[in-house]
Amino acid sequence: MAYITEEKIQELDYGKKKSFRWVNQFDREMRFTQVYEQTAGEHPYLREAICLKAQAREILMPLQDGDWFAGRTDRMFVGIDPERGDVCEAAYFCQFSLLQEQLNNPSLTEKARDDIHYLLDFWKKEATFFKCYEAFPEYVKKGLPSVDYYGTKEISYAFFGFGGPCLDYDKLCRVGLPGLKNEVHNRLVQAQKLNDGDVFFLQGALMALDVVEESALAYAREAGEKATCCKDSEIKKRYLLIASSLKNIVQRAPASFHEAIQLVWLYNLIALPRNYGRMDVYLGDFLAHDLQKGILSYDEAGNMLAGLWKKIKERGDNFNNRIIIGGRGRRNEAHADLFATLALEVQEMTCDTIPQLSLRYYTGMNEQLWDKAIDVLSKGSTFPILYNDDVNVPAAERNFRVSEKEAEQYCMYGCGEYLLDHMSTGSPDAAMNVLKALDVTLHNGIDSFSGERRGLALGSLEDFSTFEDLQQALVKQLDYQMELCAVAQATIYRVTGQYAAFPLLSVLYDDCIRRGLPLLAGGVRYLGGTVETFGNNSTADALLSIKKLVYDTKVFSPRQLLNILDHNFEGYEKERQLMLNQPKYGNDIPEADEMSVWLNSTLCRLAHKHEQTAGLDHFSVVMINNGDSVLHGKRTAASADGRKKGEPLSNGNQPGAGNDKNGITALLNSMAKLDPSLHAGVVHNLKISRYAITRQKEKIKALLKGYFRKGGTQLMITVVDKNELEEAMKNPRQYTHLIVRVGGYSERFVDLPRDIQLELIRRTLY
User: pTM of whole model > 0.85?
Assistant: First the structure.
């Protein structure tokens, strides 16, 4: 097993070198590690609460002039995190590669150098992800031999995080910290009296809630001190407001818009989830109250919300930070719509890469929200992302096998995975390169990109006398990979749950307090997971090309086709053009779309098959793909769709870049054909010209509504002028404002690595 080396860390962020800063002392990390060492004799859940307190003291940073809310963090190289430790690892983590890089600091003292070596050696034994990997069954270790996602070339990988926890912020705002503490305390008394529940979890939860209170009071004191010294009347007013809100939320449930946001924000920073759920539900009532009582004007509320947007942007992480508005199942629709409108206006004003504002649309919803959403998109924002509740609610009901009422609470997190708000987990703890699985199947278990053996040896293309034989072999290959992913996911949950209760997350999940158990140790209602698949439609196109050219028309023999691919089309450009010109997904061509539907449905059903194998309540495929379709393409051999070695794979449920040639209606028709009840989230990117969406706005609205009526689940829209992306590559300083949707995240175009920029340019502009 290998953790990510410094040579590979350069591929983080999909090729773009992350900003790096030298650190000259590591006292924070050493203090945290010392607390962890000194609590070795405590129950793991009490140890965790003590470490959480130590971490909060180290990572919470001072207020700054202009802040609307208290709370900012500066993460350490070691710590405890539910989701994003070192890359994608949960619980106790160490950022090994970045810490190792600090040894190259020319001004490093001997003490700091010794501290780094100590931290690296210590956490190689104690980081939770090592313990998870060691707990894998031997056949899973053999099938998933590397955890170096950014460096090696496997078909499938395990991640070790707890992605996408969605908390009941509505409950937090309704009962406040005192109400939450009272509920946990009463449950603890019951557990002690009746031996019903995990006493250590409940004790740890009370300790963790104390950390939030103590942090609020510390910030309140700081805000008061800054107000006393401040000469700027407007800034002083904000400091006084912050101090007042912080004192109040320690004593009672929030009673104002500002208090509610302050509570959610500070709680989130300490608990460390990366998404914010149905914000219009839990903030809508506070907004309506303050406007009605004259506590705030509408413009003041907008400025305040923009202050939250700024905080989220400052925190970073373009792959997360979801805020959901709209949708069925809201208890306060009128007030929620009021907030949703304000959120859209703030998004229009700020127009940045996060937060990822997402609108759930349904028939009968306030059409003004839909109209405003299209207006905001037309002005260059990639938000809101559009979701179709008329399709997604019944699909979630079937996929997760839950009631309609529960399905109405589906939430998107991260790059677009679904789970049930504060009822389920859906962590994407596995990834699969589907096109590489096909390549390995064609070459009797050999990855033709690297020449190394991977997966099952089931014969080569020459051994499959019919196309159906090839399909059956591919299904066996995918089935094997899917079992590895599911069992790895369940093992990661089980082991992580032994060391971490994630108390601040658990107490805001529906059943954890009632059951007296933490999230990953029996507390969550639905323990589910997901596997991210890459290159699905590239694989479907390659399969159809093989079917037509090898089996139907016999233009190539199996040996000839393999020879062409193994030579990366060198000397075979005519043959490549023949493959490129075969029917492709995304053009409303029945045989191409049917192949895509067959492959994607097969993947989804294989995932469901292994729910029981792994002991999960649900296990589903997601095609959300951020920028990793480019990363995986770099590691994948030439394929029969005409794609050359190293070129990007198809992204999400889209065609390969530029393969959609029959117009936007044909593209939308193709994308609507996959059964949405089989998966837990797919993404669909659409690149529309500024001219079309501004001059033909009503036609575009009708087109999008038509797509939703036909079964489309979701759309992510980038609005650019013709040739604007090409010009941005030539003159980046003139286009720093240009934001694009990559896959499941947005980024300023000029900040993207060149290979992703080129993939975006190749996408069809409508």
Answer: yes
